[in-house]
UniProtKB/TrEMBL annotation:
Keyword line: DNA-binding
Listed name of the protein: DUF861 domain-containing protein
Gene3D superfamilies assigned to the protein according to its UniProt record, in alphabetical order: Jelly Rolls
GO biological process assignments: regulation of DNA-templated transcription
Cited InterPro entries: AraC-bd, RmlC-like_jellyroll, RmlC_Cupin_sf
Residue span(s) of domain AraC-type arabinose-binding/dimerisation: 44-93
Protein's organism: Alteromonas portus
Length: 121
């Protein structure tokens, strides 16, 4: 399973990338990843006029978008729109960070899950 990540390089610039989550046969219930340690879960409702300029992620965390769409911009100006069902790994906890804004005048519902130290994908 592939998910998008936002990370920072040594110069503090943010970039998009991909992470492959390894899955194994879980029998009749489908394919499963290993268990990853999580610290906290945050439920969030973001207003339809949300436009948050450059900021680093407050922690290394997974973002699960449940409803609505948002555009994320990284340091080189590259932009991607993510919506319901998308998962992002936010790792740009230092440096310039990223921008995020609501799209299509939609309220966004999302869940953030902060990751335990040492969790790697």
């Amino acid at each position: 399973m592939k998910i998008t990540r936002i990370y920072n390089d040594e110069a503090g610039k943010s970039h998009f990338g991909e992470v492959e989550i390894a899955l194994k046969d879980g029998g009749p219930i489908g394919m499963l990843s290993e268990k990853f340690g999580a610290d906290k879960i945050i439920f969030r409702e973001t207003p339809a006029d949300y436009d948050f300029k450059w900021h680093p992620a407050p922690a290394r965390q997974l973002l699960f978008i449940l409803k609505g769409r948002a555009e994320f911009t990284v340091s080189n100006g590259e932009r991607h729109v993510f919506g319901a069902g998308d998962v992002l790994l936010l790792e740009d906890t230092e440096g310039e960070g990223h921008c995020s804004r609501a799209m299509y005048n939609e309220v966004r519902h999302s869940i953030f899950v902060t990751l335990d130290e040492g969790v790697t994908f």
